[in-house]
Amino acid sequence: MLLTVLVVIVVLAYVVESLLDNLNQSTAKNPLDPKIAGLYDSKERERSIAYSAEKTRFGFYSATFSTIVMILALTYGWFATIDNWVRDRFDNQIVVSLVFIALLSVISWWLDLPFRLYSIFGIEAKYGFNKITPKTFISDTIKGSILATLIGGALLAAVLWLYERLESSFWIFAWALVSGFSLLMFMFGTSLILPLFNKLKPVEDGELKNEIVKYCASQGYSLGRLFVMDGSKRSTKANAFFSGLGKSKTIVLFDTLIEKLSTKEIVAVLAHEIGHYKRKHTLSMFIFANIQTFATFALLGWLLGYPELSTALGADISSFHLSALAFFILFTPMNIVLGLINNSWTRHNEYQADTFAKETYEVAPMRSALKKISTDSLANLSPHPLYVAFNYTHPTLLQRLNNLDQ
Ligand SMILES: [Zn+2]
After folding, report:
1. Which H or E element spans position 194?
2. pLDDT tens digits for 301-323?
3. pTM score, two decimals?
4. Which residues are 241's β-sheet partners?
5. Which of 69, 89, 143, 343 is most buried when burial is the number of CB atoms within 10 A of its CB?
6. Domain regions of the chain by residue span
7. Residue 77 to residues 12, 57, 310, 400: CA-CA distances in angstroms?
8. What count of Cα atoms within 13 Å lies in the side-chain half-sphere of residue 354?
9. How far is the CA of 10 from the centre of ligand 1 (A)?
10. How far away, in angstroms, is 353 Cα from ligand 1 center?
């Protein structure tokens, strides 16, 4: 019975995702609002339509493949088979869970590899966005795997240890541990992890720096941690982000952004990022995310008491890792709903940050920066509203321009 529910959830999530993709493709060629109609010439519009069609088609193949594998794994009890294989070799419960999760990660990494390679070296390269060399790809993979094994492994071992000691009340401590760790990452991730993958440099002296210093002074914002990052190592797409809390607050501008935008446009983007800080978006999102993980851990703690979760996957004995796996599949519908709420909130914050830039700096460069960043990445300028609701963390270009015009 529970197994049927799990399979139905996997199928439904796939159907919802595919329907949304289809809807989104149905509006891709719609005539554009006069405000944005002139941004692409006809050739560029064709390219943008082709780019999003290709990405959607590829996403469909990749989702179909992983859904089929998941259904086969559930119905044929493959997870229980792996579990048994590990149990035959190890006695310690914590080790069994760790090895099981490691094996599953390695298998899914290999299954996903052809898709990831095609996405980077096929699609992104075809449209001229990719800058990842095979060498960068391999070194990213090695560094990423080492980090995931060390950090993920240590956290997981601690959670498993808590579960073995405390059983039903483990989840409160596990949550405290995970959220404490995410606070550390949130504050120091850009100082500790990011430099392993990218070079961060201060903004060079000159016109841009002067303009930035002037703007930051007008806002009483200390710009101790403002960096330019070599985003061009991986993609031609321009970007910027804000991270951290209090003294650890950091703004990162991609070198591609600096290369493509004018001085005023860059300062407008910077003003937008500072807007996220001044409007306390990062802090409130961090708190909200922790409330969500608290609720998730509470549910997990409660459901782990039911051996049916493990036996539904074909196992004879209940275990943390199998029950947690079944739990996360059961949780998928909830995840979709949470995604809707989170995305709508981040889009709301984007409007506020844009408005902040308009009020504290200038509206014209903000407007032209948004246009440049969108068209430069061949963004779909007429996405379907339902697709936007489910998938967009930022409002569409037209929505942002309308917000700036208010
Ligand atoms: Zn933003």
Report:
1. helix 194-197
2. 999 999 999 999 999 999 999 99
3. 0.91
4. 252
5. 343
6. 2-196+280-405
7. 20, 30, 11, 48
8. 26
9. 32
10. 6
